[in-house]
Structure formats: structure tokens, C-alpha cells
Amino acid sequence: MAIGVYLTFRILDLADMTAEGSFPLGGAIATMCLVKGVNPFIATLAAFGGGLIAGLVTGVLNTKLRIPSLLAGIITMTGLYSITSRVMQNAANVSLLGKETIFSIAQKWGLSRNNAVIVMGLIIALLVIALLVIFFRTEIGLAMRATGDNPQMSAANGIKTEQMKILGYMISNGCIALSGALLAQNNGFADLNSGVGTLVIGLASIIIAEVLVRNLPIWGRLLTLVLGAIIYRLILALVFQMNVEPADAKLASALVLVVCLVLPNFHLPRNLKGGKNHARSTKD
Amino acid sequence: MPEVLKIKNLHQTFESGTVNENRVLRGANLDLEAGDFVTIIGSNGAGKSTLLNSIAGTIPVQEGQIILNGTDITKLPVTKRAKNISRVFQDPKMGTAVRLTVEENLALAMKRGQRRGFRPGVKKQDRKFFKKQLAQLGLNLENRLDTEIGLLSGGQRQAITLLMATLQRPDLILLDEHTAALDPKTSITVMELTEKLINDQKLTAFMVTHNMEDAIRYGNRLIMLHQGKVAVNLAGEEKQSLTVPKLMELFQKQVGAEVEDDAMLLV
Predict the structure, then answer these.
(1) Which pTM does this prediction carry?
(2) Is residue B182 classed as helix, strand or coil in its secondary structure?
(3) What whole-number distance in Å separates Cα of residue B92 and Cα of residue B88?
């Protein structure tokens, strides 16, 4: 999840709201495939494919039709709600009870339920990171990173910045849908409303990761994102220990994000030297 | 000599139809032959940057024609022009991707105007070539291939941008006041490097500058813009024997008015 958000937020320098739509979409696609008895791995891949298409839509809206990125994401997110609902045949949630999931496959290897989730989750996260690292080292990957970093310079070097952005949106939402598929399989059901607040979770993970460690090579940054996501979960767990009611959960997570965003600012004078904030602030 | 760039009757007006209407270019004409190194001067608002941006493709052309190597590029987007035109920006931050490493930036420039695929972005054999190219800058950058560009100084970045602009030989290199943001000493280093790279590859160059002395010292041609038109156009002997007072005199004669105390004249 965090990795997907990271792609658009940091690499492409865009805030992409599509996440909130592609997350439940991924869950829905995977779940419906599983209900029909499709191989869990293929079902998960199909979710990734659904995310790619969602990203494509936002990308085209943003670059070709020149709708501001935030708005383009919201438009796609809104539209996706209906599409996800259709995918789930108008049910608000679909159960996976008794169906085979990628986690139940892992359980067959003799792992306990919890360990199966951790092992399978880690394997997939590492696989995604490995693929992304390889991708970012290719000519296209390099061009994509340059596009987010300095679009004018990229265009001057003949990089088709619009296509790079679309591709970035696609991969990003593919990853987000993938995480939606994993969560649905873990929970044992797909939920139409599971997307609400996912962007916040993703952003929080990124920011925690960046507060913890700075100036890493690209593979290191992606790895720390996983760590950031785990820590965010731990912080939330701590908050819930303090008798927060379920209804207040989103408010609590929003507040945690505010704290995460604001805390690093108090160290700013020291961290500014060589920090990326400094280089970015005067970009224009 | 074959003609590289031809600009015909170029007009650019900003905010046309409003009270703020600003006719920046009013029929600029210009011809560049292969190997020409032309310096462009003019006061603020004379149209230097607008002319350069029109050639680069970042501002759509309203009226007139731009022809590069016999092909009309007036309507081509920046990315399509990138194959033939390279550019060094005024702001050292603009020319490079600051969060990419030195070698990644160079690798990007190596592929300027070419198809990008799934081959490795930085290739092994390239690394050797980059080192050799960086060594000739004389800035000890050859051992810093893995350094993020953002950690380098403005002068170092500008030197790398210059190198990037010439890695793939461009038909035309655009220099947009590329030493204006540097301290005087670094500025000289970068200008000397510019001249060396241009001479080595016999490039056709278009350099906008605010510095009259630089405009006179470098290049084989000098053009002064005034109110959106070419006011002075010097080449050969005339250009070689030019001095700052002579240039000002010429300018006054052409424009027919006293040159005001302008930023342009603060050499």
C-alpha cells in the first residue's frame, strides 16, 4: 500500500487520490475471482491489473485532459466506487469463507495462521520491491524518476513526461490494488468501503519511513516504507489501547498522521542541510 | 556553410487583448550557420529569453517560423525538438534532476531524443565514458558518479549540465544566461568550459547573456535585441574588434536614443 502511494507522492511528486478507489477495487476483483474458484495468485494478479487500469484513467485525465492531479484522482475514485460495487454484484461486502486464498496456501506449508500472513505478506512485498528496483534502474525507470524530479529538464532531454506520469499512475495504483487484494484475503471478505482513509495510511507510512532514515538509495527507501507501515500500525495499536471507540478510529489515524507530519519540522534547522526539502522548495 | 537555424519574422505577445498586453517579440529575424557561436544581449524585456524559449519550444509560437536544418519545427513539442536541440538553464537547479545521481543524470542525457526501453539505465561501458568526460571538466567529479546531484554546488551542477547537453552532439545548443547565478570565479570556469566544449565539437551555439564582456569575448557573432527586434548584428572582424564602449555607441546609433542606465549596462 505504502509503496504504491510512495510512487506517485514522492517519485512523481503528485498526490493521487485514486488510491481510495483502487484499494477496494483490488479487494473486490481478487475476492470475486476467488469466489469463482480462480487460483489465488492469479486472482491477486488480476487485482493488480484492475489497479493498472484505474491508474491509466487518472493518468489520462491528468495529463491529456489537463485536469489537476488532485481532482483527477477524486474523479476516478468516485467513479470507481460504482465500478467496485458492480464487480461485487451490488453487495456491500462479499465473504471469502472457506475459499482458498494465498494465505491459506501458505498455511498448507505448515505455518500457523498468523505466520502465514506475515511470511506471505513479506514475500510479496519483497517481490514487488525487487521488481520496482529493477524497473527504476532501466532507461524508462530513470526517465520516470527524472520526470517527477524535474519535468522541465526531462522534457528538454526528450523524455515524454506525460507518458511517464501515466505509467507512474498505473504502477502505483496497481500496487495499491494489490494491497487491497491482500487485505481482503487476510480479512476474509471484500468491503466496498474499505478504501476510506487508505491514502492517509500510505502517506503516514512514507513520512514515518522518511523521518526514520534519510538519504537512502532507492531500494533502501522502498524497504523502509514497509517498516514505516508497520510502525504506523504499532502507533495506531497504541492509540487504540487507550480505549478509543471504533467509530473514532479514522479521526485517531488522521491525528496520528498530523503528529507524524509535524514532528520532523521541529528538527528542521538541523536537517535542512542537504535535505531534500531544501532542494525542492526553490524548484520553480 | 549550411544553415542550421532560421528564424523568420517571429512575433510573441503576452496577455494580448488586455491592458497588460506585452509585445515581447516584434518580427525577429535570425540566421545561424553551422559552427556559429552567437551571443545575444539586450536590456530586460528586450525578448532574449522569449526568443530562446521559442526556439526550445517551451513557448508556443504565435506568428512566424522557426526552421532547424531545413525542417520547420515551429509547431513541434519540446520533447520532439530535444533530439536536435539541447539546453542549459539559468538556474543550476533546472538543468539536472537533483535526486538522481551524477551518472544517472548523464545516462538520461545520453538518451536524449532516443527511444527508452527496459535496458539498464546506466550501462557498464557508459560508466567508463562518463568518467573520462567528467575528468575533462577538471572539477574532480570523476569519482563522484554515485553522488546525488543535489549535494553538488551550483558551479558543479552547471558544468554537468553543460556536459549533458553535449554528450549527444546537438545540432544547436541553447545557453540561457547559464553563468548568471554563479559567483564570478565559478562563472569564468564555466564559461571557459563552455567555449572548450563548443569548440571541441564544433557546435552551433546560441548564448543569452547579461554580461557584455562575455558577449564580446566569446563567440564569433553578437546580436543585440531591442524591443523585440534584432538591433545590432555583428560577425567576423567587426565582432572581434569590439569593445564595450564601441558596442554601446553602436547600440545608441541603432536605437536612436540615449541608452538609459539599465541593468544590461552593468558589466
Answers:
(1) 0.82
(2) coil
(3) 8
Of B55, B47, B29, residue with least CA distance to B233: B29
Mean pLDDT per 10-residue section of chain A, whose length is 284 residues: 61 73 92 92 94 94 90 92 91 84 85 83 87 90 89 89 92 90 88 81 78 73 80 78 75 79 63 40 34
Q: How far is Cα B225 from Cα A204, in angstroms, rounded to an integer? A: 53
Contact B209, B181 (CB under 8 A): no
Chain A contact for B109 (CB, 8 A cutoff)? yes
- B112 close to A (CB below 8 A): yes
CA–centroid distance for A172 within its chain: 6
CB of B165 within 8 A of CB of B86? yes
Per-residue model confidence as pLDDT tens digits over B177-220: 888 888 888 888 889 999 999 999 899 999 999 888 888 889 89
Q: Please give the backbone phi and psi of residue B100, each rounded to the nearest 5 degrees, phi first.
A: -100, 160
User: What is this model's ipTM?
Assistant: 0.81
List the 104-143 stretch of A: residues with Cβ below 8 A of B: 137-143
Distance CA B190, CA B158 (A): 7
- Contact B96/A150, CB-based, under 8 Å? yes
Query: How far does B82 lie from chain A, in Å, by closest CA?
Result: 5
Torsion of Cα atoms, A70 then A73 then A74 then A80, to 10° = 180
In the sheet that holds B85-88, the strands lie side by side as: B85-88, B172-176, B205-208, B37-41, B221-226, B229-235
Chain B residue nearest residue A280, CA to CA: B98
Q: In residues, how long is chain A?
A: 284
The type of residue at B207 is: M
Q: Which residues are CB-neighbours of A273 under 8 A, at least 6 positions away?
A: none
B151 → chain A, closest CA residue: A274
